[in-house]
């Protein structure tokens, strides 16, 4: 074995593979030259593989971020649709409340007018239209003026009239308290309807929110800053012109389509989803490139290790180890 490795005439280590034109180098020298060549080649291939791996890792990280953003956007869209359903249900209930509150207000208004009319019938505001209290006094005077009735009978009749008069007086004493309560109730009913159903009420605001989430209307634009000179383009500074610096979201976020390859929705979602699909394709291509490069570098590494082991074994034989 030792003579085989050191024999320069051995055709097994020839540069021409034993075709009768022997080289001048021994097998060990030839392996050392090959190892140097393989090491140089492996260094280049390993660097290329590391570069492809780094590009793949960066692309994969970017793809993962885009995927997470898409998931967050789509989850938000699902929540928005759930909110719209809840708003639809709430608005239906609110419309019923609005109808009933308006009817309640109208009934209370009529009741207040009716009670006021009853109290007005006791009072005298016009001599031509005497109230019940004044009529009772006039009636007592008429009883006292009767001459064909005895005093005892008069006293008995007047006592009945005075008992009735006391009840009427008690009722009249309640006028302010009763009317105040009715007017307060009427005011509350009116405020309830105004806050729920009137202009800028809860119903109006909920419908506005629903319309925004449905994409039927958009957020208003406010000119918070003075415009620059004509032709001048300036970057918006927060909080000045904050709606330009921080644009409001667009709804609907995502639109369902029959074509799964078609991305439909607001500008931000279409942009992120498109970049995600692009990143998927790029990541796959970079992964394939890295895998092929790794196969090549691994092959060179295997060849390097084999030569290293062979040289180590040959050197051990030479030294008699």
How would you characterize this protein structure?
With 321 residues, the protein is mainly alpha-helical. 71% of the residues lie in helices and 0% in strands. The protein has 8 helices and no strands.
Low-confidence stretches: 221-225
User: What share of the residues lie within helices?
Assistant: over 70%
Arithmetic mean pLDDT: 82
Please tell me how large the radius of gyration is.
51 Å
Globally, the shape reads rod-shaped
Instruction: Work out the strand percent.
Output: under 5%
Order of helices and strands: HHHHHHHH
Largest sheet: none
Q: How many individual helices?
A: 8
Helix vs. strand class: mainly alpha
Short summary of the structure?
By secondary structure, the chain is mostly helical. The protein is built from eight helices and no strands.
């Amino acid at each position: 074995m030792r003579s085989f490795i050191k024999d320069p005439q051995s055709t097994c280590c020839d540069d021409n593979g034993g075709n009768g034109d022997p080289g001048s180098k021994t097998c060990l020298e030839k392996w050392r030259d090959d190892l140097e060549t393989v090491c140089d080649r492996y260094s280049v291939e390993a660097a290329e593989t590391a570069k492809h791996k780094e590009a793949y890792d960066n692309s994969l990280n970017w793809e993962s971020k885009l995927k997470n953003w898409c998931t967050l956007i789509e989850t938000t869209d699902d929540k928005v649709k759930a909110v719209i359903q809840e708003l639809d249900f709430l608005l239906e209930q609110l419309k019923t409340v609005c109808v009933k509150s308006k009817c309640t207000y109208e009934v209370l208004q009529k009741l207040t007018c009716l009670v006021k009319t009853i109290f007005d019938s006791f009072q005298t505001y016009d001599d031509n239209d005497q109230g019940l209290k004044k009529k009772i006094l006039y009636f007592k005077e008429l009883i006292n003026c009767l001459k064909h009735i005895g005093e005892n009978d008069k006293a008995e009749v007047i006592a009945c009239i005075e008992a009735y008069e006391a009840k009427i007086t008690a009722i009249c004493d309640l006028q302010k308290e009763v009317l105040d309560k009715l007017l307060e109730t009427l005011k509350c009913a009116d405020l309830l309807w105004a806050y729920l159903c009137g202009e800028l009420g809860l119903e109006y605001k909920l419908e506005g929110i629903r319309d925004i989430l449905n994409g039927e209307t958009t957020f208003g634009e406010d000119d918070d800053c003075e415009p620059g000179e004509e032709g001048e383009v300036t970057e918006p500074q927060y909080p000045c012109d904050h709606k330009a610096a921080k644009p409001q979201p667009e709804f609907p976020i995502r639109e369902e389509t029959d074509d799964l390859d078609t991305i439909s929705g607001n500008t931000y979602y279409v942009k992120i989803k498109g970049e995600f699909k692009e990143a998927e394709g790029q990541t796959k291509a970079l992964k394939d490139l890295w895998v092929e490069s790794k196969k090549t570098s691994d092959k060179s590494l295997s060849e390097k290790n084999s030569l290293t082991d062979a040289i180590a074994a040959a050197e051990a034989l030479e030294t008699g180890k």
